[in-house]
């Protein structure tokens, strides 16, 4: 619960399974995944990240790709109750 991770190398990867975890991956093409709900994540240029949420029936995964759909590098994101990415920490 509440784990914190950081990685900074090119193509770095990381994953966390605790609720309310945070991850910061600042390397280019980095990938982060938070399997616990209520997490926050940020990634470097051309990176990708995934956050989980629950729609009331089952777990869901929302994916963000830095540089697409207005996703900015080195900016915190979380998932709202509808599964949409929102800026800021949860």
Written description of the protein model:
With 90 residues, this protein is mostly beta strands. The chain contains no helices and nine strands. The chain has strands spanning 4-7, 13-16, 22-25, 31-37, 40-43, 48-54, 59-65, 77-79, 85-87. The strands form three sheets. A four-stranded mixed β-sheet has the order 2-4-6-7, with no helix packed on it. The chain has a three-stranded parallel β-sheet with strand order 1-3-5, with no helix packed on it. Strand 6 and strand 7 form a beta hairpin.
Features:
90 residues, mainly beta, four-stranded mixed β-sheet, 0% helix, 48% strand, globular
List the helices and strands and how they pair.
Blueprint: E1 4-7, E2 13-16, E3 22-25, E4 31-37, E5 40-43, E6 48-54, E7 59-65, E8 77-79, E9 85-87
Parallel strand pairs: 1-3, 2-4, 3-5, 4-6
Antiparallel strand pairs: 6-7, 8-9
Could you write a compact summary of the structure shown?
The protein is mostly beta strands and about 90 residues long.
**Spatial strand sequence of the major β-sheet:** 2-4-6-7
Query: Strand count, sense and closure of the main sheet?
Result: 4 strands, mixed
**How does the helix and strand content classify structurally?**
mainly beta
The rounded Rg comes to 12 Å
Fraction of residues in β-strands: over 45%
- Give, in order, the helices and strands: EEEEEEEEE
Shape: globular
Poorly predicted ranges: none
Instruction: Give the integer mean of the pLDDT values.
Output: 81
Output the number of helix runs: 0
Number of E-type strands = 9
Percent in helix: under 10%
The rounded distance between the terminal residues' Cα atoms is 14 Å
């Amino acid at each position: 619960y509440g784990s914190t991770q950081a990685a900074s190398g090119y193509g770095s990867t990381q994953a966390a399974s605790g609720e309310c975890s945070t991850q910061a991956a600042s390397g280019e093409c980095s990938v982060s995944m938070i399997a616990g709900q209520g997490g926050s994540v940020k990634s470097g240029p051309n990176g990708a990240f995934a956050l989980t949420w629950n729609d009331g029936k089952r777990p869901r995964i929302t994916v963000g790709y830095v540089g697409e759909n207005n996703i900015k590098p080195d900016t915190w994101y979380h998932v709202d109750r509808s599964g949409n990415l929102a800026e800021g920490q949860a």
